[in-house]
Amino acid sequence: MYFFDNQQHSSPHIHVHYQDDSAIIELPSGVIIEGKLPKAKLKLVEAWVEIHKDELMADWQLAISGEPVFKIDPLK
Questions:
Q1: Helix (H, G, I), strand (E, B) or coil at 14
Q2: Whole-angstrom Cα distance, residue 29 to residue 63?
Q3: Which of 2, 42, 53, 75 has the greatest number of beta carbons closer than 10 A?
């Protein structure tokens, strides 16, 4: 989880990488801020964000407070 990467992305977000593609996904909406992913992979990320949005936002708050974040299970 990146929270001090630059001023442009100071809102809650995650960075997603898949093969040669990458995207920055806003939390908790799941909207792409920057980059691209294959449509099928984006659907998986959107589902994962929806399932884990409360955990992601809690981790964001921990991270910006300088606390360690909790691991969130990947999609299976």
A1: strand
A2: 19
A3: 42
**18 occurs within a structural domain:** yes
- The total domain count for the chain is 1
Burial call 3-26: b when 16+ CB within 10 Å, e when fewer: beeeeebeebbbebeeeeeebbbb
Q: What is the DSSP letter of 21?
A: E
Domain that holds residue 26: 7-64
Global pTM reads 0.82
